[in-house]
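Why should sequence recovery work at all? Because a backbone constrains its sequence more than one might expect. Tight turns favour small or flexible residues, buried strands favour hydrophobic ones, and helices have their own preferences. The token representation captures these environments compactly. In the example below, the structure is given first.
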């Protein structure tokens, strides 16, 4: 079951993110990986900044989460994670399809360039990579990430996004 996450879900969201993000270890640039991958303070700040989390619940417990953040003319998919033991069961696709129905705006997704599984997931679900110049512009415009993350990330867009804006 997909449901809107509440403030009371914050600890479980934190657990899912940090369990799932272990897959980044040894894959993303070493200087960008830390444990926990996202601190409780960072998660609270993301929620305060307008990231709205939706969760997939199985057996009464959240096992996957995905956030959406409105950025005026676009929406961003933020922090899409499925706990390790629940992967490959279609949870990410179900969450993505649900979130896509929540907005008529173009959707952008940023992820690590070296996270081939994440890029493959989004491409399989109809997203396309933007070119390097556009990526840099979009990351600076819609995300608040350090330059090192801009250098080592990619941006994907859905078919509603008009390139070259």
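From this structural description, the recovered sequence reads:
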């Amino acid at each position: 079951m997909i449901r809107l996450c509440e403030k009371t879900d914050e600890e479980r969201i934190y657990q899912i993110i940090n369990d799932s993000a272990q897959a980044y270890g040894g894959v993303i640039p070493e200087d960008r990986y830390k444990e926990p991958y996202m601190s409780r303070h960072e998660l609270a700040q993301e929620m305060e900044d307008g990231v709205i989390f939706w969760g997939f619940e199985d057996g009464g417990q959240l096992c996957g989460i995905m956030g959406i953040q409105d950025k005026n003319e676009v929406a961003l998919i933020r922090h899409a994670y499925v706990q390790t033991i629940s992967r490959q069961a279609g949870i990410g696709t179900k969450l993505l399809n649900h979130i896509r129905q929540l907005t008529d705006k173009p959707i952008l997704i940023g992820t690590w360039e070296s996270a081939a599984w994440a890029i493959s997931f989004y491409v399989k679900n109809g997203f396309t990579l933007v070119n390097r110049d556009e990526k840099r512009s979009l990351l600076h415009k819609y995300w608040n990430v350090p330059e090192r993350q801009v250098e080592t990330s990619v941006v994907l867009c859905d078919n509603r996004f008009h390139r070259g804006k």
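A few observations help interpret the result. Strands lie at 2-4, 52-58, 61-71, 74-82, 107-112, 128-129, 153-157.
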